[in-house]
From TrEMBL:
GO molecular function term, any single one: aspartic acid methylthiotransferase activity
Gene name in the database record: rimO
The entry's keywords: 4Fe-4S, Cytoplasm, Iron, Iron-sulfur, Metal-binding, Ribonucleoprotein, Ribosomal protein, S-adenosyl-L-methionine, Transferase
Protein's UniProt name: Ribosomal protein uS12 methylthiotransferase RimO
Function summary: Catalyzes the methylthiolation of an aspartic acid residue of ribosomal protein uS12.
Signal peptide: none
Residue ranges of domain Radical SAM core in the record: 148-390
Pfam families, per database record: Radical_SAM (PF04055), TRAM_2 (PF18693), UPF0004 (PF00919)
Cofactor (UniProt): [4Fe-4S] cluster
Entry's EC annotation: 2.8.4.4
InterPro entries the record matches: Elp3/MiaA/NifB-like_rSAM, Methylthiotransferase, Methylthiotransferase_CS, Methylthiotransferase_N, Methylthiotransferase_N_sf, NA-bd_OB-fold, Ribosomal_uS12_MeSTrfase_RimO, rSAM
Length: 462
């Protein structure tokens, strides 16, 4: 590599190239997008290979032990194949076994390590080890920045950090307390994404319902109008921009009730708040929820779900759960299964409890043995599979709007309003038989549903 790297005191004559490895959740992905946008703004190029890069940035995840291993392996690979590595992301904030920094302990030859959401610090490290290109204007950045998602959908991160302290989670210790982005900043980014052709906006954060709590729902100005830094107000703004707006990581607080009626409205622009809520309930038993220190744990979730569905019959509810949390008895797990049957959620993920280094839940008594944790996940998923199968079967014969993600020889792979990318199901569309029924990636088409299983749907363009 030394032959292509100029001495630090000399400016580059051709644009220096940075390799980028992005691991982790959508929140980490938006951090990667910000760093890539800044690199591009300053005239750096990106390299698709380790060998072609002058330096590599690895954005890590530290959420569970498997993610830690994957991140440490990725750093090792980048060091072997390139040698000049800057590490950022959640794992960068994690302490090693004897204090100090975990990554510096395992891989002492990395050039620099930062925590998550640290574009400025990452850029400082890049400047130090790979000087800025001679002409910072050689490559102008589009208004919507650099995105790692397909052109037709984008994640919009509205805040960083979290004020809760769930006992199984170490995110607050890595990302800090809630910091909401100013409302005008959020809406401006969304406007730029709409101009760039985005059809679906996925609103993400650690707790979307808490947006603005840290700034006491301060009033900001959007295009000269006063708008509060508050979830409902933000969502109302986003819905006017002509895109589908999908809400992730919403907690069942009473304030969420206000958003539900908005899901029944379609704007003249074609924009709408999708009738979809991603609510990570995690459990149903009050004692376990208290041990987990979950937000809104005392809310009457079944009543709330019922009221939401009454106000918006089309509503899809997705959730995640943990089985085998320390101390969970068979009766408490059964209560979770009963909740599942009662709640009739549309999309559900379930994870066996996995101790995360540094999480306070690890100190709780009566850990559940691994084989029982796994067995409970299997029982949970069997119950949910039968619920999903029945709920999806009810869609056969209906016409639903779908956003096309992919077109291939077999037809199209799309998603309905009930399906978020990566985590939910797909709608497989037959090839168009008539020219006016043709579709391409990014189109929103009406599909008549002809078949279903426990996860996906099949249909033809209506
Ligand atoms: S709400 Fe709980 S699980 Fe989610 S980031 Fe905050 S502390 Fe972690």
């Amino acid at each position: 590599m030394s032959s292509v790297v100029a001495p630090p005191s000399q400016p580059y004559l051709s644009a220096p190239k940075v390799g980028f490895v992005s691991l982790g959740c959508p929140k980490a992905l938006t951090d990667s997008e910000q760093i890539l946008t800044q690199l591009r703004a300053e005239g750096y190029e990106t390299s698709p290979s380790y060998e072609g890069a002058d330096l590599v940035i690895v954005n890590t995840c530290g959420f569970i032990d498997d993610a830690v291993r994957e991140s440490l392996d990725a750093i090792g690979e980048a060091l072997n194949k390139n040698g000049k590595v800057i590490v950022t992301g959640c794992l960068g904030a994690k302490a090693g076994p004897t204090g100090g920094n975990l990554i510096e302990h395992v891989h002492p030859s990395v050039l620099a390590v930062t925590g998550p959401h640290a574009t400025t610090e990452v850029m400082q490290a890049v400047h130090e080890h790979l000087p800025k290109p001679h002409d910072p204007f050689i490559d102008l950045v589009p208004d919507h920045g650099i995105r790692l998602t397909p052109k037709h959908y984008a994640y919009l991160k509205i805040s960083e950090g979290c004020n809760h302290r769930c006992t199984f989670c170490i995110i607050p210790s890595m990302r800090g307390d809630l910091v909401s982005r100013p409302i005008h900043d959020v809406v401006r980014e969304a406007e730029n994404l709409a101009k760039a052709g985005v059809k679906e906006l996925l609103v993400i954060s650690q707790d979307t319902s808490a947006y603005g709590v840290d700034v006491k729902y301060r009033t900001g100005f959007v295009n000269g109008r006063a708008v509060r830094t508050r979830m409902t107000d933000m969502v109302r703004e986003l819905a006017t921009l002509g895109m589908w707006v999908r809400l992730h990581y919403v907690y069942p607080y009473p304030s969420v009730d206000e958003v539900i009626p908005l899901m029944n409205e379609t704007h003249a622009s074609g924009g709408r708040v999708l009738p979809y809520l991603d609510v990570p309930f995690q459990h149903a038993n009050q004692r376990i929820l208290k041990l987990m220190k979950r937000p809104a744990s005392s809310e009457r979730n079944l009543d709330r779900i019922r009221a939401w569905r009454e106000a918006c019959p089309e509503l899809t509810i997705r959730s995640t759960f943990i089985a085998g949390f320390p101390g969970e008895t068979e009766e408490e797990f059964q209560e979770l299964l009963d909740f599942l049957v009662e709640a009739q959620l549309d999309r559900v993920g379930c994870f066996a409890y996995s101790p995360v280094e540094g999480a306070t839940a690890n100190e709780l008594p009566d850990p559940v043995p691994e084989d029982i944790r796994n067995e409970r996940v299997a029982r949970f998923m069997a119950v949910q599979e039968s619920i999903s199968r029945k709920r999806l079967a009810k869609k056969v014969g209906k016409v639903v709007k779908c956003l096309v993600d992919e077109v291939n020889a077999d037809g199209g792979i799309a998603r309905s309003m009930a399906d978020a990318p990566e985590i939910d199901g797909s709608v497989f569309i037959s090839p168009a038989e008539k020219p006016w029924k043709r579709y391409k990636v990014g189109d929103i088409v009406s599909v008549r549903i002809t078949g279903s299983d426990s996860h996906d749907l099949w249909g033809d363009v209506a």
